[in-house]
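User: Some background: our group keeps a shared notebook of sequences we're curious about, and every so often someone picks one and asks for a predicted structure to add to the entry. Today it's my turn. The entry only has the sequence so far, pasted here. Could you supply the structure so I can complete it?
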Amino acid sequence: MLLIVLLALAVAASVAVLIFRGVMIVRTPHESAPKSHSGVVAPNQNSNPSPNPNAGAGSTRPENLTSCVTDSDCVVVPYEGCCEQFRAINTRYKKAYLKNGWQKMTPQEAELCTRVECSPQFRGEPAAACVQGSCVLREQGK
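Assistant: Of course. Here's the predicted structure to add to the notebook entry:
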């Protein structure tokens, strides 16, 4: 009995650890239908560990990686995530971000993605926009 309880807690903890990055549909064993979300990607999409602060582009902590004042501060970069192929970051960090492969998922994140069902994020190429001081992805023309 204790083993069953511990197993249930481990499964619940692994689902809770899942980092939401973009527009996705999440199914847990207790839900009969997925919950769908659409529109602008939430500013916290960039919750991955960010580039090394010693990369030469200043402080690249997550809050700095996506901080912005205007739309021109933001750029779309490739990203390997559960449901997305892009993310929006501040233009001044693009070179450091692309240089060392920080856009890749860890094996643990990839395993968690097997529990996620994704909805289509955008029909075409996304655009970057500054929303409430954070770079986010938007559908082009919107």
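Suggested note for the entry: The chain has one domain: 42-142. Confidence is low (pLDDT under 50) at residues 5-58.
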